[in-house]
Design brief:
Shape of chain A: globular
Mean pLDDT of chain B: 63
Number of strands of chain A: 22
CATH topology of one domain in chain B: Cytochrome Bc1 Complex, Chain D, domain 2
CATH class of one domain in chain B: Mainly Alpha
Number of strands of chain B: 0
Largest interface: B-C, 82 and 54 residues
Low-confidence stretches of chain B: 1-37, 242-335
Strand content of chain B: under 5%
Distance between the termini of chain B: 65 Å
Chains: A alpha/beta (589), B mainly alpha (335), C mainly alpha (264)
Helix content of chain A: 10-25%
Order of helices and strands of chain B: HHHHHHHHHHHHH
Radius of gyration of chain B: 22 Å
CATH architecture of one domain in chain B: Orthogonal Bundle
Number of domains of chain A: 1
CATH topology of chain A: FAD/NAD(P)-binding domain
Number of helices of chain A: 13
CATH superfamily of one domain in chain B: Cytochrome c-like domain
Mean pLDDT of chain A: 95
Shape of chain B: globular
Distance between the termini of chain A: 37 Å
Oligomer: heterotrimer
CATH architecture of chain A: 3-Layer(bba) Sandwich
Strand content of chain A: 15-25%
CATH superfamily of chain A: FAD/NAD(P)-binding domain
Structural class of chain B: mainly alpha
Largest sheet of chain A: 8 strands, mixed
């Protein structure tokens, strides 16, 4: 018999960024809110203080702040028909655990999506014609436009104190910013970061080649800043320990610094830690969620009744929770019907390294998570795809984010993997190498989805989620085309030699690539092809909402956090201004 | 009128210099050599005892002592062991008014940059100057100060001091000064100046933000705590990789400049291990990159003159050179 | 050299030098052997932890037995060998590092999903699929590699081989040319290689990267790090000695760092 908790108005599944946003807003709107976080509490002081925080082995290699896969993991396969096997160690991506979630130990690269991304299907059809793409490219529109989301982007950036150089203010292109970005209603709240040596070398060359370099928008805040709530964010000290570390200086925007203090101060809000949510309970007749069942800190199965349930867990955890709760129709890759788990997307990453063989002291340890110089000339809306046979794109950047040597010790191709040759190459190249990265979009494909595994179970006896993913042909073409451009820049940067990492193999769950998992519970205008409506409200249960990058129909060639935050404020607005006054579907299906 | 320093003090001071840092032959009042752009602790020492002012005879030693030990009045900090670059920058800040001081401002303004370098080099070179007696502090106050130093003040957003000022406050050369063993009145006074908005010179105003978030009691506690820490007692002895004949190599910390293949174009350092903390002016200080070269006017804020790289290598020719192949093999006459 | 060498120290010497050393069992033989090794080994090899550090915990093993330790120390020294300037993984204490890792949560697979069923021959994209925890993997991998070596190289142990032959064995593990009965050799090799790099570069508080040699070699300044005023000084030769979490190096940083450049 499950333990019964006192009913609340809103149960938030998760205690990360979107839970902090909704928790604060809904509590202030008079709702009683409980956030159920599977990990523990942690705060800037004492948990994030250096020098103990500056521990590459503990945080970066052993993943101290990431999900414990001994409790719950995923199974993975490349193709439908292959046997999925459990991800026994973390690798390709690192879902977070603990209050604040990934926004505690992110790098802080805070990009808006170009307007085209939100209307991708109509934009492609209008611009390149209906027959341009293979039918397997299951892109679709988001049901929301950039213009609608823009005020929420602006607000979220103010909350986080984002630092950057604007490129387009109300349609006027700004010198020094990203000329390809969508029009923003005002500048960034804070000036851009300093430019690193590698960023300078990259920007200089890219500019000479006719591209448009600019500083990466950053949540590593560049000056003393007070956000709209009154939270004080302090300036970044460029210590080189951003991702996956907590910031000791109150300088990297995180829920703990920017939002949570105001939620926790509100008596309507409770952060209930060490609470592992198993499923959403719902009334089959009335078609409403009734609460969530979770395992509490003592290991007791507990039921938390709630008028409203919001899934604020990590990207693929949200659709997996819906599958485990039997909500909605699971996606079937054979018949291509159903919605839950559909359009799982990721990020298409390649890299290049320029080796100066001692001609520069790059000092890679003088770093910050979002310290970088980028060009956006190859993002989706920036160039013509005619005749290329693919859609999408991404940005190319020279980030100087880390010199932590367990993972950062670049060596040229052809270097032995160990032994004296390796050691001497590491020594030779550590301080004189510039790394470029291409951060590419991810296009949905019918093969790629999130389901439930038939065989493996988690520590609570529930079926594991199952991930089926490989890079679609579209994305391989796209990566090839833009990686060639990146190689051209790298070549022009004047190093002694260079390496290029092409996308030439199947997706692997092993090497870390990025934690930008997206999709699986996507938003849209049609309940047949989406899980939530444009307000992130479930089509099936009107009092169930889904936050986070789970709702992206496809992943843009940018880091997702800015859009995740903007959508959370957009949804919070709809909840408070529309839904709470008159609970029911905000969009009729 | 301040009188000349008795010769005896100079002799004592000479004895305190370790031979490793400064050979005996370099001691003594030797101003006969041609001036160079190098910082000369010897010349610096001459200045500190007032030797540069033929008649007035005002010197640093009157207040800070020949060994830089300062005194506990709160106005005259201990300078010994402070990083040379930090001392130089401090003199610059006094001269420019970033750190307003009726005493140090006029003195610093009379010094040329070369003289500032020399003085800084001199005080930075002194080792083993005695520490002041530990202040008599209430245990509880010291504990509060120690907690602030080690973990910060959660409710006020004050991070741990040690994070930047080094383990036990021994500093992080060249920019973050040591504060361990510094006089409590001096530390308290500086934090109060920041709290009142009367002091500058800290990167990103970080110290001002921190001091403003602290109460006067907390400032006093942390100052007393650091005054009671004496670095030589609290830093553990290192285990060194040290076969004797290659000790010199190891002592450098990282490979000697000029020898490491990654050091091409770096400033040749005559003594190992000093590169990060040299007094400015070894090379003509020049901005690393003219902003005019930036293609789209990438906003790079010009650096204030006194934080220009003191030991920066001559700017490297940034133009693309040579070609490479995407397979990583150098082409033609690359090597 | 008046200090008596312990057996462990001797192992260390033998392992580092890569000489074919047999381990005498009596103290008298040890002393004699020590003299032989001294004569044969490069100078830096003789810099022993017990000389450097009075702490008795150096050399204390939690997981490996003596023979496993000899194997690991010899192997990691081939993966990251000593050269004229910088010591190898053996001096850096990588054996200590791996030993402590395996004795603790990592070795026990504390954050691994270890439920069956098991499909050990899965494609590489699906990642590690063996039953073993890292500790079990090492125990089995070492035993089976040693068995392979004694069978293949005339009853000699791995650590008795010359350096090129050790490299040959390691390459065989890496490529899978050597087949071990209970596990794919490349999995064992890759784990050992990854842990060796970790031990060479991780903070010294974990028992490896002794004297922060890994950091000194590349120029990484360690755990105490703030570069707000330096990041835009391109090409800065930054030479502040590193400082670790446990404050190793703080004395050197203090004494050496807080001085000035002498004149030319």
């Amino acid at each position: 018999m499950a333990v019964q908790m006192k009913p609340v108005d809103v149960a938030l599944v998760g205690g990360g960024l979107t839970a902090a946003i909704l928790g604060k807003e809904l509590a202030e709107a008079g709702q009683t809110v409980v956030a159920l976080e599977r990990g523990g509490m942690r705060q800037t002081i004492p948990d994030f203080q250096s020098p103990t925080m500056h521990d590459e082995l503990k945080f970066d290699v052993r993943h101290a702040y990431a999900q414990d896969v001994s409790v719950q993991t995923l199974t993975f396969r490349n193709f439908v028909g292959q046997q999925a096997l459990p991800m026994r160690q973390l690798g390709s991506f690192l879902p977070a655990e603990g209050v604040g979630g990934g926004a505690v130990h992110w790098n802080g690269q805070t990009w808006r999506f170009q307007p085209e991304w939100f209307v991708l299907k109509s934009w492609v059809e209008e611009r390149y014609g209906r027959g341009f793409l293979d039918e397997d490219v299951s892109i679709q529109d988001w049901g929301i436009s950039y213009e609608e989301l823009e005020p929420y982007y602006t607000f979220f950036e103010k909350v986080m104190g984002i630092s950057g150089a604007p490129g387009n203010i109300n349609g006027r292109i700004q010198v020094g910013g990203n000329p390809f970005e969508g029009p923003r209603s005002e500048s960034y709240p804070n000036p851009p970061m300093k430019q690193s040596h590698s960023g300078y070398l990259f920007g200089q060359t890219a500019g000479q080649l006719g591209y448009h370099p600019f500083p990466v928008p950053s949540a590593n805040v560049t000056r003393h800043y007070t956000n709209p709530f009154g939270a004080e964010i302090k300036p970044c000290m460029y210590c080189g320990f951003c991702d996956p570390f907590g910031c000791e200086h109150f300088a990297k925007a995180s829920p703990q610094v920017c939002i949570l203090p105001f939620a926790l101060a509100n008596k309507n809000f409770e952060m209930r830690t060490h609470s592992y949510v198993l499923r959403v309970e719902w009334d089959r007749k009335a078609k409403v969620a009734t609460g969530v069942t979770y395992v509490d800190a003592q290991g007791r199965e507990t039921f938390q009744p709630a008028n409203m349930v919001v899934l604020c867990a990590f990207a693929h955890h949200n659709p997996i929770l819906m599958l485990q709760s039997g909500i909605g129709q699971p996606y079937d890759p054979v018949t291509r019907t159903g919605t839950i788990g559909r359009n799982y997307t990721y990020q298409t990453m390649t890299g290049a390294e320029v080796f100066y063989d001692g001609e520069h002291h790059i000092n890679p340890f003088m770093a910050a998570g979002a310290l970088g110089t980028a060009i956006d000339d190859f993002n989706n809306g920036s160039f013509d795809h005619s005749g290329l046979g693919f859609i999408g794109g991404g940005y190319i950047a020279a980030y100087q984010t880390t010199g932590r040597p367990i993972y950062y010790h670049p060596v040229p191709e052809g270097t032995p993997r160990w032994g004296l040759g390796w050691k001497q190459a590491v020594r030779r190249h550590y301080n004189s190498t510039v790394s470029l990265s291409f951060h590419g979009s991810s296009i949905p494909h019918p093969n790629n989805y999130v389901g439930l595994d038939p065989t493996y179970t988690d520590a609570f006896g529930q079926r594991l989620g199952m991930l089926t993913y490989d890079f679609p042909y579209n994305d391989r073409l796209m990566a090839r085309y833009i990686t060639e451009k990146m190689a051209g820049i790298a070549q022009a940067m004047g190093g002694k030699r260079m390496s290029v990492g092409w996308l030439d193999d199947h997706y692997s769950i092993v090497p870390y690539q990025t934690t930008h998992n997206t999709g699986g519970a996507i938003m849209g205008a049609d309940p047949k092809t989406s899980v939530v409506n444009r307000y992130l409200q479930s089509w099936d249960l009107h009092n169930l909402w889904v936050m986070g990058s789970s709702v992206f129909p496809q992943n843009a060639g940018y880091n997702p956090t800015d859009t995740v935050g903007a959508l959370a404020y957009w949804a919070a607005d709809a909840m408070i201004k529309q839904y709470l006054k008159n609970p029911g579907p905000l969009v009729q299906s | 009128m301040i009188r000349a320093v008795p010769l005896g003090i100079a002799v004592v001071a000479a004895a305190t210099l370790t031979s490793a840092a400064l050979p005996q032959s370099m001691l003594g009042l030797d101003n006969r050599r041609e001036p160079t752009r190098d910082a000369d602790p010897n010349r610096g020492r001459f200045i500190t005892i007032g030797g540069m002012f033929a008649d007035q005879r005002i010197g640093c030693v009157q207040c800070h002592g020949i060994d830089g030990a300062g005194n506990s009045s709160g106005a005259f900090p201990r300078l010994t062991d402070q990083a040379g670059w930090y001392l130089y920058k401090t003199l610059q800040d006094y001269a420019s008014g970033l750190r307003p001081s009726d005493i140090m401002g006029p003195i610093a303004q009379t010094l040329t940059p070369q003289q500032m370098e020399d003085v800084a080099a001199y005080y930075a070179s002194i080792k083993n100057a005695p520490y002041p007696a530990e202040p008599q502090v209430d245990v509880q106050v010291r504990q509060i100060g120690g907690a602030i130093a080690a973990i910060g003040i959660p409710s006020q957003g004050v991070p741990a001091c040690d994070g930047c000022h080094g383990p036990n406050g021994v500093g992080q050369a060249p920019l973050y000064p040591y504060i361990a063993g510094q006089y409590a009145p001096y530390l308290e006074h500086q934090l109060m100046l920041w709290k009142q908005g009367r002091r500058d010179g800290d990167p990103m105003n970080i110290m001002e933000l921190i001091a403003k978030a602290m109460t006067e009691e907390q400032i006093r506690a942390v100052a007393l705590y650091y005054a009671s820490v004496q670095p030589r007692d609290v830093i553990p002895q290192d285990v060194r990789y040290a076969p004797e004949q290659s000790r010199r190599q190891v002592d450098q910390g990282i490979p000697r400049i000029g020898q490491n293949p990654t050091d091409v174009g770096a400033v040749e350092s005559p003594e190992p291990g000093r590169g990060s903390v040299v007094v400015p002016g070894i090379e003509p200080a020049r901005p690393p990159v003219p902003s005019a070269e930036l293609p789209l006017g990438l906003p790079r804020r010009p650096l204030p003159p006194n934080v220009l790289p003191p030991y920066l290598a001559p700017p490297v020719d940034e133009r693309p050179r040579g070609t490479t192949t995407t397979t990583g093999a150098p082409v033609g006459n690359q090597q | 050299m008046t200090e008596k060498l312990s057996r462990r120290d001797l192992l260390k010497v033998a392992g580092v030098a890569g000489v074919a050393a047999t381990v005498p069992e009596t103290a008298a033989a040890e002393v004699k052997h020590q003299q032989v090794v001294q004569a044969a080994a490069p100078q830096e090899v003789l810099t022993r932890p017990s000389q450097q550090s009075p702490s008795t915990e150096q050399g204390m093993l939690f997981f490996f037995n003596d023979e496993e330790a000899r194997f690991i120390e010899a192997a990691v020294e081939r993966l990251i060998p000593a050269d004229q300037e910088w010591p190898g993984a053996a001096w850096a204490g990588v054996l200590n590092f791996i030993d402590r890792q395996l004795a603790a949560a990592y070795g026990a697979g504390a954050r691994m999903y270890l439920k069956g069923p098991w499909v050990p021959d899965a494609p590489p994209q699906q990642g590690y699929q063996l039953r073993y925890t890292p500790a079990q993997l090492y125990r089995i991998g070492i035993a089976e590699t040693r068995a392979h070596v004694t069978a293949r190289y005339g009853r000699r142990e791995f650590w008795d081989l010359t350096a090129p032959v050790m490299d040959e064995v390691l390459s065989g593990l890496e490529s899978g040319a050597i087949e071990l009965p209970s596990l794919p050799a490349p999995v064992f090799f890759e784990t050992l290689l990854a842990n060796t790099v970790e031990g060479y570069f991780a903070d010294p508080v974990y028992g490896g990267n002794r004297d922060m040699v890994g950091w000194r070699m590349v120029g990484f300044p360690g755990a105490y790090a703030q570069y707000v005023d330096l990041v835009e000084l391109y090409n800065l030769p930054y030479t502040r000695p590193p400082i670790s979490i446990g404050e190793a190096g703080a004395r050197q940083a203090y004494l050496e760092g807080h001085t000035h450049r002498a004149q030319k």
